[in-house]
């Protein structure tokens, strides 16, 4: 029996008789505007692109699940963490930060590590990176920072002068800069890197008791990084190297996995800890707060359609579920606004109704209308609240967790300016070979910087972290070793 193909149709479902030849006036005459199938096809094509993400534009995604291996319900009432063995579907997107959608994967850049948990109480997004810290610690600096990472407005080229000017004038970046310039700055694949929530978050249990939490995803594949020369070669030969690696591994059944750990800090410790635990440029010592296992995530299914699932995926640190909240980290606070704001612009105001973003547990609310509302728009159901028609009602037991605030409202800086202890400790932890590669990477990166004053200012920061670190960078750049810093 021969298989009957479905008829090709226009966007309004009418059959298309000829998809190879447009309708012309005579054999060699101009094309007729009344060829409505042609107009339809071209008009749709003209709108195929949505704006790429303003950061983290290039990425790859996969589906999988998260399974709880340790009962931490004493700390959080989050339903998906409620008992050992509980499985929750996830969608994960890995990315580079600064490059455009078509840029090379094997560049020196942090990697995004965004996880969407489709829990029974709505979606929970853990939108982190492969580094535990960040370059800055106040959201108000983020647009300026990203400008230096993107292209120069005149030359449309990457501009190392802007990069190092900003970093040297924002010394809180030193910790992340040291990580980025180290071997970990270019992971071998997305599968061979850890992930971090980076910020401090808040967990609250059923008794209303809260703790501060840091998340760590440890790769079960082990850490592997790329040698610089190989990374550069791959960037030319196969700019999609990491995307391809993830896809192929999953396709052949070699499913990557990560174990999730948390550090738990009692709420009151934050007041007396030796630095502000909401400062995302610092790590909280695992000696003080050891890692506790939570569960394991396995990625076992590739997307069926890249645009629908990866490009339209919308992660946000504001996508929270009961039992998980935020801290006063000023970066995190800014992020609570930025993600959904850009997503409303990037993919439209109803982006949460797209299949990849829609909670599996459903939504019941009174949001109506807006561009591209294609899910029935609540039908004839009651469209306001309070109402006398049995519409969805608030649940007082799910009120946001209360917390205490005090003090003056002001543009207050972070209280401490110790930008040097942790990067110095990291430098001192490295082997001689790792230090040599770190310094070489920095020297190569800083060489093209146009102003000596920028280089000298940055060298002073390295020197303050560790005199040897500063001296070796200075020598590599042929500049004087700082004194009296
Ligand atoms: C105030 C600081 C920050 C702001 C304003 C900000 C803003 C943004 C924006 C607007 C996007 C694009 C989202 C989209 O189009 O869907 C994005 C993506 C992303 N950001 Fe941030 N970001 C900040 C800091 C951070 C930090 C500290 C991390 C990690 C700890 C991070 C991780 C990510 C990741 C992983 C993505 C990509 C998500 C995906 O795969 O779709 N960002 N960020």
Bound molecules: protoporphyrin IX containing FE
Class derived from helix and strand content? alpha+beta
Q: How many strands in all? A: 10
Give the overall form. Answer: globular
Distance between the amino and carboxyl termini:
85 Å
Question: Which percent band covers the strand fraction?
Answer: 15-25%
Mean pLDDT: 97
Query: In angstroms, what is the radius of gyration?
Result: 26 Å
> Share of helix among residues?
25-40%
Number of helices: 13
Question: What report would you give on this structure?
Answer:
With 485 residues, the chain is α+β, with helices and mostly antiparallel strands. Among the domains are: 59-139 and 186-351, Catalase HpII,  Chain A, domain 1 (Beta Barrel), CATH 2.40.180; 422-477, no CATH class. It has 13 helices and ten strands. The protein has helices at residues 36-46, 142-149, 160-169, 174-181, 228-237, 241-251, 269-272, 306-311, 330-346, 421-429, 432-446, 452-465, 467-477; strands spanning 59-68, 87-96, 111-119, 122-129, 195-196, 201-204, 210-219, 257-266, 292-301, 324-326. Strands 1, 2, 3, 4, 5, 6, 7, 8, 9 and 10 form a ten-stranded antiparallel sheet that branches. The termini are far apart. Protoporphyrin IX containing FE binds at residues 53-56, 59, 93, 95, 112, 114, 127-129, 134, 139, 142, 198, 280, 313-315, 331, 334-335, 338-339, 342-343, 346.
Brief overview, please?
By secondary structure, the protein is of the alpha+beta class. The chain has helices at 36-46, 142-149, 160-169, 174-181, 228-237, 241-251, 269-272, 306-311, 330-346, 421-429, 432-446, 452-465, 467-477, and strands at residues 59-68, 87-96, 111-119, 122-129, 195-196, 201-204, 210-219, 257-266, 292-301, 324-326. Among the domains are: 59-139 and 186-351, Catalase core domain (Catalase HpII,  Chain A, domain 1, Beta Barrel), CATH 2.40.180; 422-477, no CATH class.
């Amino acid at each position: 029996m021969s298989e009957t193909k479905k008829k090709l149709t226009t966007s309004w479902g009418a059959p298309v008789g000829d998809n190879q030849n447009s309708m012309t006036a005579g054999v060699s005459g101009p094309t007729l505007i009344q060829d409505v199938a042609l107009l339809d096809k071209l008009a749709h094509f003209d709108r195929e692109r949505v704006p790429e993400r303003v950061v983290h534009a290039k990425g790859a995604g996969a589906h999988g699940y998260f399974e709880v291996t340790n009962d931490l319900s004493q700390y959080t009432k989050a339903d998906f963490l409620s008992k050992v063995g509980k499985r929750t579907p996830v969608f994960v997107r890995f990315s580079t930060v600064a490059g455009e959608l078509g840029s090379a994967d094997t560049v020196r850049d942090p990697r995004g590590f965004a996880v969407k948990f489709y829990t029974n109480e709505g979606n929970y997004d853990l939108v982190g990176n492969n580094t535990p810290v960040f370059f800055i610690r106040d959201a108000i600096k983020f647009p300026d920072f990203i400008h230096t990472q993107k292209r120069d407005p005149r030359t449309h080229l990457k501009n190392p002068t802007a990069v190092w000017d900003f970093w040297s004038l924002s010394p809180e970046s030193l910790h992340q800069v040291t990580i980025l310039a180290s071997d970990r700055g270019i992971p071998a694949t997305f599968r061979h890197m850890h992930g971090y929530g980076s910020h401090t978050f808040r967990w609250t249990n059923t008794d209303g008791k809260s703790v501060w939490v840091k998340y760590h995803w440890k790769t079960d594949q082990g850490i592997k990084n790329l040698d610089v020369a190989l990374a550069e070669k791959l960037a030319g030969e196969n700019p999609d190297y990491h995307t391809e690696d993830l896809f192929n591994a999953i396709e052949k059944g070699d499913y990557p996995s990560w174990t999730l750990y948390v550090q738990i800090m009692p709420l009151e410790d934050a007041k007396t800890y030796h630095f502000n635990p909401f400062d995302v440029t610092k790590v909280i010592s695992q000696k003080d707060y050891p890692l506790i296992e939570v569960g394991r995530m396995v990625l076992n299914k590739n997307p069926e359609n890249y645009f629908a699932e990866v490009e339209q995926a919308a992660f946000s640190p504001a996508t929270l579920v009961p039992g998980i909240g935020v801290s006063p980290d000023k970066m995190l606070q800014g992020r609570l606004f930025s993600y959904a704001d850009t997503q409303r612009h990037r993919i439209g105001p109803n982006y949460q109704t797209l299949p990849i973003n829609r909670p599996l547990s459903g939504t019941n609310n009174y949001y109506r209308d807006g561009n591209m509302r294609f899910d029935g728009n609540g039908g004839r159901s009651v469209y306001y609240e309070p109402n006398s028609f049995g519409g969805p009602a608030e649940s007082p037991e799910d009120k946001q967790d209360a917390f205490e605030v005090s003090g003056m409202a002001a543009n207050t800086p972070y209280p401490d300016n110790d930008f040097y202890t942790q990067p110095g400790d990291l430098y001192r932890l490295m082997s001689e070979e790792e230090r040599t590669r770190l310094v070489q990477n920095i020297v190569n990166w800083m060489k093209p910087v146009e102003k000596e004053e920028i280089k000298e200012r940055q060298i002073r920061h390295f020197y303050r972290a560790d005199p040897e670190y500063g001296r070796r960078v200075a020598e590599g750049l042929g500049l004087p070793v700082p004194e009296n810093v």
